[in-house]
Write a structure and sequence with these properties.
This protein is of the alpha+beta class. The protein folds into three domains: 212 residues, no CATH class; 116 residues; 55 residues, no CATH class. The chain is built from 17 helices and 13 strands. The strands form three sheets. Strands 9-10-11-12-8-13 form a six-stranded antiparallel β-sheet. Helix 2 crosses helix 4 and helix 15 runs parallel beside helix 17. The chain is elongated. The mean pLDDT is 88.
Amino acid sequence: MRFNELRDKCESYCRITDPVLTEIMYYGAVKSGLDTKFSVYSKRYKHIVSKWDEANWSRFKSQYIVHEIFKNKKLISSYLNHSQIKALPQETFSLLHALSEEEWRYTFWQIQANPAPDFFWALDLVSLKEFLLFSPGVSAYLKTGNPKFFGGLIHPTENNCFQTFGPLVSYLSMDADDLFYFAAEVDPLLYESGQDIADIISDELFMFLLLAAFGHIPAQIYSGYELVFVSGEVELEDIDFSALSQFFTIEYNPPIVKIVHKEYGEFPHYANAYFHEEQQVLYLSSMTDYGYEHLISDLERLNLPIDAEPQVRLHLSMKMAVEEIFRKKVEMMPYEKHFVKDTDASASSSIELEKLNHFLQRLMPLLNSKKEVDIDRLIDETGAEPESAKKIYIHIRQKLGF
């Protein structure tokens, strides 16, 4: 593929289409009330939107309006038949008609390869299809860090090469599992209805735009392990607890039996299981992938019918996003409260994690609003572990360009 020629075509395409998109955007904003709809959403989620500055709010608004116009073929067709749009110069009208035939979608993607400057082979995390992307914006992000994935509004141009329109968002610590978790929060009937996540993003785009406020939160690493809540559950009629003694210790608070991994049961892995005698459910959880893998492998040695794949993987950044956006508490270890003691080392570690999470929740609004941060005072007020808190503070400032 001749990328130099393709670059010229892509850049030329942008120069031509940008003013046309601006024209239809303003028309659609007024004609269909899309600007009003965006403003209503913004007021409803003011506690999150306030993290954006005015310029970003305007750019997300433009992106939202263009998405809403082009996703609805009936809507864009009605615009093309309106006298005001038909009165546009013929070249502009023809280009607008061509744009209406393209596939516009907001999605999230992971970079697979970089075959030429500003060109990328990307994997769509929603459709799991690979596509070619031209994006100087992605190149700029990759010069300053290594995001796990990106999000944005894309559409095809020359040679089926995709380009972005509007804000490009990088995510430093989330992954595909987090996106599916969030989609299920947006639509609690997701798994029952069998609805495609792409349809949920299309129908509820504003909710997914809110995730931009949490994209720059870095991964939390302890002793070389990334912290991520991993869990699963399986129905079991009974367990022979005597057979577990080689790898686990047992604690009991009726009707719940806590199965503590001897090697990985403490922080940071916190790999433990809980058997609810009345519900006959074995709940599995860990705070690292490594810990969960060992928890499962050692339980499988005892011939317990357990699926190695977890049902939930949730990074701290997405946990924070869900809690703040929906104003709800996400409980990832629902049975642990039955066994917490003030002297427990594991309880102490869990408390330290909560303090660090609280530190992040206090820190991000200050940084997003570009207010001065008294880091020592913030650490004192939240009780976060000073060394870890300061490393996170420095890392986020660098990502934000401070």
